[in-house]
Amino acid sequence: MVIMFLISCKKDFLEIVPKGKLVASTLKDYDLLMNNISFYKMDFSDVIVVMGDEVAVEQNYFQNSTGEVQRGFTWEDYLYTPGQDEVVYTTNQLLNLYTCNKIINEVTTISDATAEQRTALQAEAIATRAWINFTFINHYGKPYLESTAATDPGFPIIKEANINAKDFKRNSVKEVYDQIISDLQTAIVSLPPKSAFVTRMSRPAARGLLGKVYLFMGRYQDALGQFNDAFKDLASVASPASLYNYNEAFAAGGAFLPVGMSGPDYPGTDYSKYQESVLLKTVSLSGANYGYFGLVMPPETMNLYSASDLRRNFYTNKHPDFTPMMGGLYRKYANYSHVGIELADMLLMRAEARVRTSDFAGAKADVELLRSNRMPRADAGVPAGITSNTDLLKFIIDERTREFAGEGQRWLDMRRLSVDPVFSSHTYSHKAYAADGVTVSQTYQLRSVRFTLRLPLSILQANPGMTDNP
Q1: Which terminal Cβ of the chain has fewer Cβ within 10 Å, N or C?
Q2: Between the CA of residue 168 and those of 158, 159, 340, 387, what are the distances in Å?
């Protein structure tokens, strides 16, 4: 032991890495960076969950919710009070962006890996950077409109891992989308058809994301091609993501049973249930806090479900203390929102891309495939009265609400559809109900300017030349 100690002392002290200060230098080091839990389990509430028009509130409970949740629901200009260490979601995503850029720019220099290993890990970081930038642009940039995207302010494109960088400027919405597309196209070539963990980017996940990007841009034919390729990739691997069949999951011995005080044991209450996830990313709903803080589903939302739709089992008409909710209000059993690349979302997005490119039969087949796994097959068909592409498109958008109510997806749909000729004239409102569940104590109207959130104060203070959204 003494000899070993003396030998070790001959090393230069600069070669000894202080505890807790390890610098990534090997393939394993860089690979482990992508396993950080902040990439896939985000334990903070994303306020967009309460901004969709499918939710309402019960006022006597809602007054106890957090300030940002209240201001998000009422679509106020400023969601966070000045001086807060604000917008935790954005702050954490910026840290994840730093990690991605570090891997992208450094992993090609490591010597303990093959060129193929380095390229694959770099591709994963590039695709993850695209996912982060897509999140940013859908918070802080205007909905994509081809005629104005080149001049609409977006979000800074950050491609370096430099903590000392400052004076960032906002790139245009078009520049950000172009960067996202470029990143995904680059990454797809080198990503595996199946990742080692569902929390890590794969080729079908990147293709699903690229299809979503094109859909948000109105490039429906391009979107359809990506969704088709993503489904082909999924079909080529063992044990791919697959839909839960709710007819089985709610049957005796089914995967969603037993139904306890917190509701069914389904992905909304257990983030580790990821059978339908192509890329697992979850956001905690603790800030919105269904029931305790008064977030409810109004009759307009619940009436979208047919009596046999098993998705109704995710709702209850009782408060957390088991007292009845009045007036036809329901609360959702939910602790998590799955915000990554989900199979149901891909199916509905492909259905939308198909109907927008005049493939009525293909779109109908996709919708009915999903619905046959959500209710008895006899009730899963698209209603016979829906015979035009426009009617089927509207049905698909309603199906998205049925599938994702209270999870934040509706807000993203509202944003992108606000510049769509079919939906652009639609207006959006929120209702706050009194304790009787019938009396509307307050109604809030969404102004179009608030489809775009204002930038976090901390970002504006760090970059004095950066302009805010109106």
Answers
A1: N
A2: 9, 12, 28, 50
Say which CATH topology domain 41-245+339-462 has.
Answer: 1.25.40
Residue 28 phi/psi, 5-degree rounding, is: -60, -40
Q: What is the pLDDT of residues 76-113, one digit of tens each?
A: 998 887 655 457 778 889 999 999 999 999 999 998 98
Q: What are phi and psi of 310, to 5 degrees?
A: -70, -10
Contacts 24+ apart (CB under 8 A), 63-69: 63/294, 64/292, 64/293, 64/294, 65/287, 65/288, 65/289, 65/293, 65/294, 65/295, 66/287, 66/293, 68/287, 69/45, 69/287, 69/288, 69/293
Q: How far is CA 163 from CA 39, 94, 159, 160, in A?
A: 19, 11, 12, 9
| Statement: the pTM of the whole predicted model exceeds 0.90 | yes
Token code pair at residue 84: 């807060």
Domain boundaries, the chain: 41-245+339-462
Comparing C-alpha atoms, which of 132, 137, 44 is closest to residue 452? 137
Q: How far apart are CA 402 and CA 370, in angstroms?
A: 11
